[in-house]
Amino acid sequence: MIKDSDIKWIEPPRMGLLEKLYLPAIVEGLSTTVRHIFAPRVTQQYPEEHPKLPPNYRGVHRLNRDEEGRVKCVACYMCSTACPARCIDIVAAPSPWPDREKYPETFVIDELRCIYCGMCEQACPCDAIELTSLFDLTGLSRQEMMFDKEKLLSVFDQTVQAGTDPVRTRSGVLSVASEPAG
Asked: Is 41 part of any domain?
């Protein structure tokens, strides 16, 4: 049972004549409109002008290669376990190389399902998977957006050739992979 002394009654705010006529709201809306009219323009003409992306931008994934040109992944399943969207599918096979136990026979990322959170990048113990600064990702079918091992390795080759290697990040105040490592 609630005591009467614990109840606090609140009076609705009293509106004056100006508030009843909506004049303060109209003036505030017009001032916002005028401010936007005279503000500097920030529209980019996209295909001609490419946007300036922050160094820790998270775009299309890539699978890294080691010094010998092999896939760096050791099929430990850490990235697929950490992925909240469950968009990474790995099938492991015994490694043909003596320096590791297994390697990914198939490695597929569903780029349409991915939320680009960077958890896979953070979870990978051997830095095999990274998110690049490539953002113009298109496909005409769902199958085209399923990035297999060969396509992910080609993204690595493309970014290395272009000199746009991703900046390694660390967990920051905002979230995982939010601040450049330094």
From this structure: no
